[in-house]
Design a protein that fits this description.
alpha/beta, 6-stranded mixed beta sheet, 4-stranded antiparallel beta sheet
Length: 581
């Protein structure tokens, strides 16, 4: 885990190495100041020598300025290294997430990924900056202060050393107790973020069903858990200060009593006792800093493990060593395909799928909820990989293609339409980055999106809010279809992508497809018989199996499931839009 995180320092290695060196130089300068102070007392004040007072005073002033200079430079380099490290960490996580297949993403919740890239990274960033400075400064200051104390008086130093050993055991025990609590607390942050995300995304539904009070209670429970765990952790950490102060001040009282006896007996000078107390005070500050490090590391280790889970997650879908870069045509073959979302569970979503689709065919897909329609088409562009069997496009196994080349030739309009904040033309150019305005207009004409775009004041440069909240569901669907057409694919998959469009517009879109892109293989998932009855052939799925694959007329004659669907839709009078037209 540590190696994985350290690699993200990247181009900031110089600053990360300089910071401990500059901090060490700062400590070395500071450690000499009490020693010089002792000289001022013993050789200046006690002897009444004004020259020595000014001489050693000047040295102390120089040491202080040098220490200040090194401290400022260490602060600058540590800030640069820490923020750069956090930036690289977020970039690495984001790139890794982008490389994930759907099955990888299913391992993490959306809220969990957001928390990892924000709260967790910030925690690790703070710990890294503290490690570069305080984790170097505190132990080094303590060790050097201890060395100076031993040089002044061994017996007095042993008293304080025994106290430090006891204190170290106490801090280790506290950290051992608090670590599991912090891990649980970060998991609860995921739940809190999930509550916020669900509430904000579904705010219209929340208000429509008057569920504000329920959502407030749900958010309150998530927030309360974080509060409870934080208080529990802080109650344990609260022992840090009292334990440390008790040990340190008990040791200092013993030092004062024993030191006074040594001065009276003439075995120690006043200056040496003064410098000894300065070094003990430095050790006290160092121990306080070390306790802060323990707390920060306790929190950051839990965060670091969560970050490492994302970075160490291997994408299940990878490019082959020598990938095929060209897709010859839009033919599709499913050969003995089995698929399960949970490998090894024995629960197959798709079973014994054997299909052969010619290039340029229009294929309808229909079936009940959970029959595997969306899963089936997801295998074509390798959003998921088959558990067994093979899927071929253009006669070549999809696993042999370069992933980007395959997906550029297979346009998918997903069941859930995603529209991003920006202008209409910005959203369209997701399909083709360098698409001209004319190309965008042509795609929109095919998708019947030009009808509403032309009515807007700014037309193709009209602003779309995040999630497309300022346009209707049908308009979003048509924009998504136009975006997919801009890729000029060999295979076009419409996953229930006209469900919010009236049947008249749906018919226009299908007619435009027949007349303008006859060479493109079109797979249309729909619950409407009217949307797929003109397809060359129709796949009927039932419980993950192909129940029928034939023309509309033949399925009506020989397929009981398809016949029942048609009868139900006919008895209900068909679509309202269809009757109106």
């Amino acid at each position: 885990m540590v190696k994985t995180l350290i690699r993200q320092i990247g181009e900031y290695k110089k600053q990360a190495i300089l910071t401990p060196l500059l901090t060490s130089a700062e400590v070395f300068m500071e450690i000499l100041i009490p020693f010089v102070t002792a000289k001022i007392i013993d050789k200046g004040i006690n002897e009444g020598n004004l020259y020595n007072i000014f001489y050693y005073g000047a040295i102390m002033l120089i040491l202080a300025f040098i220490s200040l200079f090194f401290g400022i430079k260490a602060g600058q380099t540590s800030a640069t290294a820490a923020t750069g490290f956090a930036s690289n960490l977020r970039k690495k996580m984001y790139r890794r997430i982008q490389a994930f297949s759907f099955s990888n993403i299913d391992h993490f919740s959306t809220a969990g990924l957001v928390t990892r890239m924000t709260t967790d990274v910030t925690s690790v960033e703070n710990a890294f900056q503290m490690t570069m400075r305080i984790a170097v400064r505190a132990p080094l200051m303590m060790i050097l202060s201890m060395v100076m104390c031993f040089m002044i008086n061994v017996r007095l130093t042993l008293v304080f050393l025994a106290g430090l050993v006891f204190l170290g055991f106490c801090l280790f025990f506290i950290m051992h107790k608090v670590m599991p609590i912090f891990k649980r607390m970060f998991d609860k942050y995921d739940e809190l973020n999930a509550s916020i995300q669900e509430n904000v995304t579904g705010i219209r539904a929340v208000k429509a069903f008057v569920r504000e009070d329920f959502e407030k209670e749900k958010f309150g429970r998530a927030a309360y858990w974080i509060y409870t765990l934080s208080v529990k952790a802080e109650k344990i950490l609260a022992f840090n200060g009292p334990v440390m102060m008790s040990v340190v001040y008990t040791s200092m009282m013993m030092l004062a009593w024993l030191g006074a006896n040594f001065i009276v007996s003439g075995t120690m000078t006043t200056g040496n006792l003064t410098s000894l107390f300065s070094y003990v005070a430095s050790m006290l500050m160092s121990m306080m800093m070390i306790s802060m490090i323990f707390v920060m590391l306790s929190m950051s280790l839990a965060a670091a493990r969560r970050i490492n889970e994302v970075l160490s997650e291997e994408p299940e879908i990878k490019n082959p060593q020598s990938p095929v870069m060209e897709v010859s045509d839009g033919s599709i073959d499913f050969e003995d395909v089995q698929f399960s979302y949970r490998k090894g569970s024995g629960e197959s979503t798709l079973k014994d799928i054997n299909l052969h689709i010619k290039s340029g065919e229009t294929i309808g897909i229909i079936g009940g909820t959970g029959s595997g329609k969306s899963t089936l088409v997801s295998l074509i562009s390798r959003l998921y990989d088959v558990t067994s069997g093979s899927v071929k496009v253009g006669g070549i196994n999809v696993k042999d293609y370069d992933i980007e080349a395959l997906r550029n030739n297979v346009s998918v309009v997903l069941q859930k339409n995603e529209i991003f904040s920006g202008t209409i033309i910005d959203n369209l150019r997701w399909g083709k980055e360098d698409a001209s305005e004319e190309e965008c207009k042509r795609a929109c004409t095919l998708a019947c999106a030009d009808e509403f775009i032309e009515q807007k004041p700014d037309k193709y440069y009209s602003w779309i809010e995040q999630g497309g909240t300022n346009i209707s569901g049908g308009q979003k669907q048509r924009l998504c279809i136009a975006r997919a057409l801009l890729k000029e694919p060999k295979i076009l998959i419409l996953d229930d992508s006209t469900s919010a469009v009236d049947t008249s517009t749906d018919a226009k879109i299908r007619k435009a497809f027949r007349e303008n892109i006859p060479h493109v293989t079109k797979l249309i998932i729909s619950q409407r018989i009217s949307s797929i009855q003109d397809a060359d052939r129709i796949i009927v799925l039932d419980d993950g199996k192909v129940n029928g694959f034939d023309t509309h007329d033949n399925l009506l004659k020989f397929n009981q499931i398809y016949k029942e669907i048609c009868e139900v839709q006919m008895q209900s009078g068909g679509d309202f839009d269809e009757k109106m037209n």
